[in-house]
Amino acid sequence: MPKYTVIYNEDAGKNDNKSIAERFQQAAKRLKRSTTLKATSSRQEALDCVVDHIDQLDTVITIGGDGSINTVFSAFFKAKKSVKVGIIPGGTVNNFAKALEIPQDEEAAFDTILNGHPLAVDLTHTEDRAIISSLTLGTLADMARHVGQDEKKKWGPLIYLSKGIRQLIAKKSYQIKVSTADGDHVYRTRFLLATTTNSVGGFTNFDTSASPADGKIHLVILKHFSFMRLLGYLSYFLTGRFRDIKDVDQLTAQEVEISAVDSHLKVETRIDGDPSDQLPIKLGVEQGFVQVMVPK
Predict the structure, then answer these.
(1) Which fold has domain 134-287?
(2) What residues have CB less than 8 Å from 255, skipping those under 6 apart?
(3) Which among 176, 191, 194 has a CA at the least distance from the CA of 258?
(4) How far is CA 16 from CA 8, 30, 115, 153, in A?
């Protein structure tokens, strides 16, 4: 009989996480399944909770968006062990949940956890944390930094397009080196995106070749920027046809190292919308490392 541990952030602004956790507990109780609720006040507390109790856990339930899922997957990476995961989407964008077709509706998400089936998905990571949806640098990283929670709630994915266009026009370029098993690739770029799924910024057609279970890191690099082609970039972004743009390079790999050509240059990255390490950064994939409950 499955046993559930619901980990939720009780201090994440104006949320209803405790009530959601309690409603899930009642839904599981009707099936005579036990549920433990664990309230945390920080990412580190949640991460430590999973790592310290990994051998006693059966199924971990996370409430929230990509950042909340990232905390659980990062704990698995640190523990070098995983358990089954159930997701109750509570973020604004929910790239990972959408890629797995996990319902955004609360009751349907409960049913997926209680009556769905486990799907083995990859754990993509840096040297110390997981990547659930994406790693960005340049324009896309700046875009995420300038999008507030209130804006995300009000405008949803559209706010990313608006901010992205502004940053793309104003942002300077970086000279970076991308190293894979196929060799070194040097670019002067305004943005780089490493993604694990087909969904970026809430748009599920961004890269239809990407899957959470394909064992690959998918990279999109803007090699050349043309203001005259800005509307074209937007169209390709919405329709997932980036590979058709001559200004864009696409790479896939199981291991990637990204560095600045000028080692003294500080280039910041963001992972799943949150601040991460500066370059250089190494990425890898543990294929099929985690089982996530998905609809039948």
Answers:
(1) Tumour Suppressor Smad4 (2.60.200)
(2) 180, 181, 217, 282, 283, 284, 285
(3) 176
(4) 10, 22, 24, 14
Look at residue 190 and give its three-state secondary structure: coil
Alpha-carbon distances, residue 94 vs 97, 122, 150, 251 (angstroms): 5, 17, 16, 24
Q: Where are the alpha helices (DSSP H) in the chain?
A: 17-29, 43-52, 66-79, 95-99, 106-115, 139-145, 149-155, 158-170, 230-239
CA separation for the pair 56, 293 (Å, rounded):
19
Query: Can you give the residue ranges of every domain in the chain?
Result: 4-123+289-294, 134-287
- Find the largest Cα–Cα distance for the chain: 61
34-76: pLDDT as tens digits: 999 999 999 999 999 999 999 999 999 999 999 999 999 999 9
